[in-house]
Design brief:
globular; TIM Barrel; alpha/beta; 10 helices
Length: 284
């Protein structure tokens, strides 16, 4: 397995290219980049700018493991407003096109949600069955883009925060229903930890897993503020690593460490790299 880290875990004052150079120095094999409304990677980014970023990664021997975005929470496929759902599809298509140019391994996608009061308390609650039907319809469209571009669109288990696709069985069946080799799973070890066990999710999802977000979680007191540094929470990482080995997983472990440190922010990536070396049996 290979080490990657989210650009969200890097000092905000660094550019994308500076972030790539920094994670290379920290001993990572890859980086997760972010697609934003504006910023360096977004809807209006010229192709030549994306090529420069890809070339920077190549020079530094850093793979772009995947692309993520916060915008799926703003433009959910399950929204009551058809214009919002249309924007969500436009976002998915543009992310996949961007990933193709960057040479990214896959694109993280949130399938939608029933309610997201943790982040956006004023959004209406969507009936579960309606949300499911809308999410399936959206991914039937997304798979066409993903197949044409040969870039996997990976459904993340954001289950606790969106109150949707709440079990590994349900997520597995959702992805199976789309029936495409380019619609897979980006499995997050932390997101299922309020009410479940990551190693069990890995057993169920098996070969559907294309990429892994690795982060730790402290169940008491819980909530969105309970994400902590790797190896300082309650997750059974030896069991998680063994479960990944058992399904033959050899891809990226992408550390999504939030929030950044208030002081000496560079240390977050440095400490995370050492913790991941320990998990993977590398010299620390």
């Amino acid at each position: 397995m290979k080490k990657s880290i989210s650009i969200w875990s890097i000092d905000d004052n660094m550019s994308v290219e500076e972030s790539i150079e920094f994670v290379s120095k920290c001993g990572f094999d890859g980086i997760e980049l972010s697609f934003d409304e504006g910023g360096e990677i977004g809807f209006d980014t010229p192709e030549e700018n994306l090529i420069k970023i890809r070339e920077c990664a190549e020079r530094n021997n850093i793979a772009i493991s995947n692309i993520s975005t916060w915008l799926h929470w703003d433009y959910p496929h399950t929204d009551n407003d058809p214009d919002v759902r249309k924007k969500g599809l436009e976002l998915a298509k543009k992310e996949l096109e961007t990933a193709k140019i960057l040479g990214a391994g896959c694109v993280l996608m949130i399938p939608g949600y029933v309610n997201v009061d943790f982040f956006i308390p004023d959004r209406p609650t969507i009936p579960y069955d309606v949300a499911y039907e809308r999410a399936v319809a959206a991914f039937m469209e997304i798979k066409k883009y993903a197949e044409d571009l040969e870039v996997p669109a990976c459904v993340e288990n954001a289950n606790e925060w969106g109150k949707f696709l709440m079990s590994p069985l349900e997520l597995r069946d959702f992805v199976d229903s789309i029936d495409s080799p380019y619609v897979r799973v980006l499995f997050d070890t932390g997101n299922c930890s309020i009410s479940g066990y990551p190693e069990q999710w890995i057993d169920v999802l098996g070969s559907q897993i294309d990429c892994v977000h690795i982060k730790d979680y402290r169940r008491n007191p819980g909530g969105v503020h309970a994400f902590v540094d790797l190896l300082s929470g309650d997750l059974d990482f030896p069991a998680i690593i063994e479960a990944l080995k058992a399904i033959g997983y050899a891809g990226f472990l992408v550390a999504e460490m939030l929030p950044q440190y208030k002081y000496f922010p560079d240390l977050l990536a440095i400490n995370t790299s050492r913790a991941m070396d320990a998990l993977l049996g590398r010299s620390v």
